[in-house]
Every structure is written in C-alpha cells, then in structure tokens.
Amino acid sequence: MTTMHLMLRAFSLKAVTLCAAFTVLSQSISAQECTISAETPVQVGAAHNPIHAPLRPDWSAHFAGHGQLIFGTGKVYLHHLAVPMISADSHPHSFQVLLEVTFADAAAHAAYVAEVASNPDSIFTAIPDRFDQTALIASYPGFDPLRTLPNTEVFRGHFEQGGARILSDETKVERVVHAREFSLGAEPISHLTYILFGDEHEVFMVHFIDGSVPNFDSILEVAIDGVVTDVLAQNPLFVEVPSRANSEAERLRANETIQCAFEARDGSATDLHLQVAREIYCEAGEFSDFVVGNNFNNPRRCTG
Predict the structure, then answer these.
(1) Torsions phi, psi of 138, nearest 5?
(2) How far apart, in whole angstroms, are the C-alpha atoms of residue 26 and residue 219?
(3) Integer CA distances (angstroms), 232 to 38, 73, 177, 304, in order
C-alpha cells in the first residue's frame, strides 16, 4: 500500500467518495508553510462597535434580508453572503457570519439532504426573514441573542440568480461559529487566511474576509488529520498560508494538499496534512470595490 493511501485512511471526511479526488494533487506547499491555530487574525478599525442591538430593528444600520450559502449534510451551516459596504447609516452586509443551524422540521432536513445528494455540483442558498446580524451576538439584561430564524427559504442555486426554491422552514441557531464586522479601516491581511470548522464527518474552510477590496469569498470542503477535528467540535481554528498572497488568484483550490503545523493551546505543535476536496463556492465580483448605498457590484464567480 502506498504512503498516499495510508494518509487518506487517516481522514474521516467521506473517505470513499473523496478517494478519487485525492488521487491526483495538482499543487503542494512545502512542509510547515501553513499554520493552524486558535489565534484570531488581529484586526482593528471597524466603523463602530459591532455589539449593539437597537430597540427598533427596522432603524438599524444592520437590519436587512441576509442571503446565505447553505452547506453541510450532517451539521448544516449558513454562511452570510457578505458585501463590503461603507455607508455609516446602512451597512447590513459588512459582516462575516457563520452559523451552525438545524431545521425545525426533520422532514425539511431530509428534503435538503436529498436535494444535495441529487445535485452534487450545485450550490444551495437560503434567505431567512429580515433580521439584524448583531442580534446574534448581542446579550444584555432584557435581551437574549437571536437563536431562531423563521421562514428560511432554501434554493437550489443562487436565490438572486435564478435559483429554484425547494423548501421553507424555521431554522434554529445551534452555534455562532464566527461573527465579525469587517474592519474597514484596518491594514489588509497580506497572506491567505481561512476559518477552519466542522467535525469528524465533514470539515470546511471559509476565506477570512478582512474587509479590504478587491477581495473574494471562498468556501472549501477539506480533509484533515483527526487531531484537529477533535478541537473543531468546540471552536473554529484559523489557517494561515504565508507563502501565498491574500488574493483570488492565489487562493487554495480543489485537489491541492498543504502540509501544516497545528499549534495547540498548550504550546505543542503537530505536523499534519490538509487536503482540499472541492471548492463549494467562490465569489469575487461582489468584492471588487466598496459599496455605497444600494449600488452593488456585479457578481462574478472566481476564475481558475
């Protein structure tokens, strides 16, 4: 048995279905040029304090209909389809938010999983009723964080680009995996950085969007050694690739493998392999420039 096959056996993510995808690895990065840790990339300079939920949500600078990419079949995730908006009085989409959710109706979950299985090359999107994203993380006397998104419509394809509606159901927020307002005044991150999350069954990475332009939004399905998936069950980790510029052209793609050093909280380090099974979604056009008011940029999927 080859060394590659032994490596693949160690990965828990869909070992049978991903085997063919990992047979040919188009590119690689030398050992320890990638680091994985719990340290959040340091950024300052947000337009204002993001932790505030207004008494009148309809007056909020953050209250809107928030489109989501929905993915995952064991645990289900919603990833806010962000836009770098700079109007002080209205910038509802200047947030990177990642939620773990469940459908209220088990039949809705089954229908969604069946649609994903029947359409493996399609993206799926969702649009809950309008809400203020800061309500997901704000907590003070008399106000509990938002944990229910009523009437979440799910589409095969993009809901704004001809997608087909497949179901509507209430979704419950089980966990806020990551939530952050863009730091529009901060120094841009120079190298590729991702948010890593999931469990022993499915692992994903989302590009860490720093709020600078041009930029891109990318979601990857990956496989990684089990020592990391044990940690991901509780908290996301951050993957940094210093050898690559933080750009659409330099992003990680399907069939790549990278060798990383996992830096645990106790100071220990473990060398491991991270393999990209597929790129679920990548958008660049929406991040080509800052958005003022409702003058949105034209969407364009990433190239290459």
Answers:
(1) -80, 140
(2) 19
(3) 10, 17, 10, 29
